[in-house]
Design brief:
Helix content is about 35%, strand content about 35%. By secondary structure, it is α+β, with helices and mostly antiparallel strands.
């Protein structure tokens, strides 16, 4: 059994070492793929939240003439309503949450609309906006994991002394 038995043990040891290496390599690849998926999902949610805040802030600032921005409720949620006059008619931009999406619709004042008729903007699981007085608004957005994010925005043209009022 001398040389032949030792040769068999060498081959088995080499195969076991190779198998252990292959299993560990597969384990590292699976861990890396899971980490990549988590980072990618987190990055997408972060992008949605940041982009939604920028979008909402810019919309509020576009309609920053005092009295043209209001908050109302539709279908159990909050809606931001921005008014503007075009050719002696008043039109409204409604921004609201519908079906897990931040949505927007542009309609003539007094026109009824279905929330699902709006243009989908971003994926969000929650949207709240509160008028805090003095031209200040607090926006709260919720991502798919239930994380809540807040931001404040002030009307520049506020008669109450908002940012930029002189």
């Amino acid at each position: 059994m001398g040389r032949k038995g030792q040769h068999t043990i060498d081959i088995l040891f080499t195969l076991a070492l190779f198998l252990a290496f292959a299993v560990l390599a597969l384990f590292v690849v699976v861990l890396g793929a899971n980490a990549y998926n988590d980072i990618s999902r987190s990055s997408d949610e972060n992008y949605n939240i940041r982009s939604s805040f920028v979008y909402l802030t810019e919309k509020i600032r576009q309609g920053d003439a005092y009295g043209s921005v209001k908050v109302t409720s539709i279908a159990g949620g909050d809606a931001l309503v921005l008014s503007q006059e075009i050719n002696n008619d008043t039109y409204e931009t409604w921004i609201y949450l519908s079906g897990g999406k931040l949505s927007e619709i542009f309609i003539r004042r007094g026109t009824a609309f279905a929330p699902e008729a709006g243009q989908e903007i971003m994926d969000l699981s929650g949207f709240e906006i509160d008028a805090m007085g003095g031209g200040l608004y607090r926006m709260t957005l919720m991502d798919a994991r239930g994380g809540e994010y807040d931001s404040l925005v002030s009307l520049k043209g506020s008669a109450s002394g908002g940012i930029g009022a002189g």
